[in-house]
Write a structure and sequence with these properties.
303 residues; 11 helices
Amino acid sequence: MDINVVFLIFKRPDTTAKVFETIREAQPRKLLVIADAPRPNRPNEAENCAATRAIIDRVDWECDVYRNYAEVNLGCAKRISSGLDWVFELVEDAVIIEDDCLPHLSFFRFCQELLHRYQDDQRVMSIAGSNFQFGRTMTPHSYYYSQYHDCWGWATWRRAWKYFDFEMKLWEELRETSFLQDHLGDRQMAQYWRIKFDLAYESQRDTWFYRWLYSCWVQNGIALIPDLNLISNMGLHPGATHTIEAAPYFNLPRAEMQFPLQHPPFLFPNRSADRLNFLNRCHINLPTRFTRKMRRIASGIKQ
């Protein structure tokens, strides 16, 4: 396929091999691999990192392979963000897959078509592969516009990544304003994400994604979300960096995107889908009355 695929790997040869086989089916023209180095004093981690990197040597189709392997452990936030900086020095756009996110093959074509369609539309900053509506249809179209960017199989452009702000320079000023509530239109969502952004800003959570989501929201950037799930996250196990608590959004079944794509006629966020995504994806305990209200709104409003 005429796409650039970024493969984020670390120390899990089992899941990496499964995801690699799907990438092999897609046969991208370029494969850019980002890997962190093993952490000191972690038993077997050096061996597992080596075994994971060796999987990349299995490329057997016509493909330019680029490797960005850290020599010392950088941690999740710095490794992935610095790796994506490197990626977008080389290519204009890319599909990005982590080593535990298993895509349906149609995910690659979905990204390929939307990367081309929206390449010059500054309002759109990412394309997601995951859908957390648990089978509920939220739009008559193939995808909907959202304020929620996601990282379990996604794509973006150099023009969007240039706004990534690792240091979250404006957060100290914005957190004291109504920025989040104005942007999200909901007090509960604003409170939740203020806590998450504080954790990232104060370096209490080794995450690049909260910093990316913040960067997108500061730019009022829109995401494209498929109306069915194209990605299954297999990362729930004791050796995972973050995903160690059971939740219903792990190991979701993958569906096949149908083509030609049915494009939404208007570009504005699907608020009902975003509310339901927040409830299902963020996995938080909200008051029962509030939860019922949000689900009722999500069920009754279509894009």
